[in-house]
Write a structure and sequence with these properties.
Strands 1, 2, 3, 4, 10 and 11 form a six-stranded mixed sheet that branches. Strands 14-13-12-17 form a four-stranded mixed sheet. The protein has 13 helices and 25 strands. The chain is 36% helix and 28% strand. The protein is globular, with a radius of gyration of 27 Å. Strand 13 (176-184) and strand 14 form a beta hairpin. It binds adenosine monophosphate. Adenosine monophosphate (AMP) binds next to helix 5 and helix 6.
Length: 584
């Protein structure tokens, strides 16, 4: 029996603990099923010490009783005050470590006494020593301190023997680090590192908070910043909005009864578009790219020497970051191993190696291809009808759902044909067309009518694509089985014959040839819709609505039996409309 050594990522914003069991990494959950423990410590009203989410909840209302980001003070000869009492940074870190130790003991049902703990590559000796001391205070022997980028590289490249230069881009809540790691014969070495330990997702939240505050100031002429409760809610809402914008093109920020002004309740309702959000954060991203070049210089390398980019830290889910790195290096960055957890996983792998355990490679389900659609855009500096617009990027962990918004290009445009492609070329026609469908009877409005395209890909490679007219909710969808398997070349050639652009003009004939594949898809989709309608029936109160649904189900069932493509399409659409309106 090998001895138990845990791996710990003691982060500025969040901390995690992991072990290796039967050759595989397990990220340990707390009693509420959470693997990510906020690095907050607080004293409750009754004097209890709180750690994690409960402490984080206290922070906004009782900052004087709560400590956050203690990692920034590690190695300094200072004390911090919490609820009137002084603590050293080591003591506060030890409280977090003790909580992590208890989570692991609860899971393994064994005492946990040894740990590998990760620290940033730039940590000085004093900071590393303070981390060891924190472990000691918490009752943990720190058998090794390893660098965070080393841990990330171990998670991705465990058991790899080929020499590689890996760039680890780590953007968390409050810190940014970039490291160039050399991997050779299982030896991982950080050769250069640079960063800013006051840059991270918190800055992005703050931009959204400022935007909301300015909106309330303009709309109601109030300075909400003096209202602590309201600001606590705005802060949470801002972070939630940011997370949503990683998967969607816009988000509605809503907080009811946020504040009472002259006896009148103030509700917050503000839509934020990803484009606008990206404008708010672009300077921060540029700063991280400058830091990458400093690190590359330090390593005496250029961008073309980098073999792989690894994404670490929750903020790297921001699409703008992934896009900018891809543009800069011509490589698709890897974030498929949960970027919040991959450092703790690497610490556990190192811990297992020390304990003499074998560790297999960490496996995750990912999409091997990019999925997207085509639209009017630019290619090689020229306007181009079939510009490929990626929606789900290659290497994304599954299951995943991503949404993008597109706009009609003509006034009163009634229909849009949506082509779905799999591939990596910026020219959609060079990729594989795996399906298409059209959304018709769009509203009579000027060009720029937003159409929301959602793609959901599951672990079995089934791709569900839906398009929705934003202003009416009118929607249409298809399901593509085996989306991750390549088309036969002939089928591909045939499919390309039918290629259209996502934004055909209103005169275009969207009644293209319908293949038997599409017919099957329409039937699968219709059956799914029927199942959904049947499960919704029980929750509907109005007998009129119920009757409408039952009639449409019957009509659809009959159309399926008769394989009547036109009625299947029509009845599906009507049933989907009813369900959509009932849902909203
Ligand atoms: P870490 O310190 O690595 O745990 O990262 C925490 C930061 O990642 C926080 O600022 C989070 O708001 C941010 N974050 C987590 N998930 C996402 C996401 N899906 N998109 C953007 N930021 C995220």
């Amino acid at each position: 029996m090998n001895e138990l050594i845990v791996g710990i990522d003691l982060g500025t914003t969040n901390s995690e603990i992991a072990i290796v069991e039967q050759g595989k990494v397990t990220l340990i959950e707390d009693e509420n099923g959470q693997q990510i423990i906020p690095s907050f410590v607080s004293v409750a009203e009754n004097g209890d010490i709180l750690v994690g989410e409960t402490a984080k909840n206290q922070y906004l209302l009782y900052p004087e009783r709560t400590i956050k980001s203690i990692k920034r003070r590690m190695g300094e000869d200072v004390t911090v005050t919490m609820a009137g009492q002084s603590y050293t940074p080591q003591e506060i870190s030890a409280i977090i470590l003790r909580r992590l130790k208890a989570i692991a003991e609860n899971y393994t049902k064994k005492p946990v006494n040894k740990a590998v703990i990760t620290v940033p590559a730039y940590f000085s000796d004093a900071q590393r020593q303070a981390t060891r001391d924190a472990g000691k205070i918490a009752g943990l022997e720190v058998v090794r301190i390893i660098n965070e980028p080393t841990a990330a590289a171990l998670t991705y490249e465990n058991n790899q023997t080929t020499a590689k230069h890996i760039l680890v881009y780590d953007l968390g809540g409050g810190t940014f680090d970039v490291s160039i790691v050399n991997l050779e014969q299982n030896v991982v070495e950080v050769i250069a590192s640079h960063g800013n330990n006051h840059l991270g997702g918190d800055d992005f939240d703050q931009e959204i908070i400022n935007h909301i505050v300015a909106h309330l100031q303009e709309k109601y002429e109030i300075d909400i910043t003096v209202e602590r409760q309201a600001m606590a809610r705005i802060t949470r809402a801002a972070e939630q909005a940011k997370l949503a914008l990683s998967d969607k093109p816009f988000v509605l920020i809503e907080e009811e009864f946020l504040y009472e002004h002259h006896g009148k309740p103030i509700h917050l309702s503000l839509e934020l578009e990803r484009h606008l959000y990206e404008d708010m954060i672009v300077d921060y991203i540029d700063e991280t790219l400058d830091a990458i070049h400093v690190a590359l210089e330090g390593a005496h390398l250029t961008a073309s020497d980098i073999d792989k980019i690894l994404l670490v830290g929750g903020s790297t889910r921001t699409p703008l970051i992934i896009n900018r790195l891809r543009e800069e290096f011509g490589l698709q960055p890897h974030g498929e191993i949960n970027p919040d957890l991959c450092v703790a996983a690497g610490a556990a792998i190192q811990a297992a190696r020390i304990a003499g355990q074998d560790v297999s490679t960490v496996l995750v389900d990912i999409t091997p291809y990019t999925f997207g659609t085509s639209a009017l855009g630019e290619l090689n500096g020229q306007p181009y009808m079939h510009r490929f617009i990626p929606v789900i990027l290659k290497n994304t962990a599954l299951p995943t759902t991503k949404t993008e918004v597109f706009y009609t290009v003509n006034d009163n445009q009634q229909a849009v044909l949506i082509d779905i492609y799999q591939g990596e070329s910026p020219d959609a026609l060079q990729n594989t067309l795996i399906g298409n469908f059209s959304i018709t009877e769009l509203s009579q409005v000027p060009e720029g009518n937003p159409i929301i395209l959602t793609m959901a890909l599951d672990v079995n490679g089934i791709l569900h694509v839906s398009a929705k007219e934003k202003i009416t909710g009118l929607n249409k969808s298809i399901t593509i089985d085996n989306a991750t398997s390549h088309f036969e070349q002939e089928a591909l050639a045939e499919a390309k014959m039918r290629v259209g652009n996502l934004f055909h003009s209103s005169e275009s004939n969207s009644d293209d040839v319908v293949s038997s594949d599409e017919e099957e898809q329409a039937i699968v989709q219709a059956k799914e819709l029927i199942a959904k309608a049947q499960s919704t029936l029980a929750t509907i109160e109005s007998s009129d609505d119920k009757e409408d649904i039952i009639n449409q189900i019957e009509r659809l069932n009959q159309a399926i039996a008769e394989q009547d493509r036109v009625i299947i399409a029509e009845a599906s659409e009507q049933l989907a409309d009813i369900l959509f309106y009932l849902d909203n």
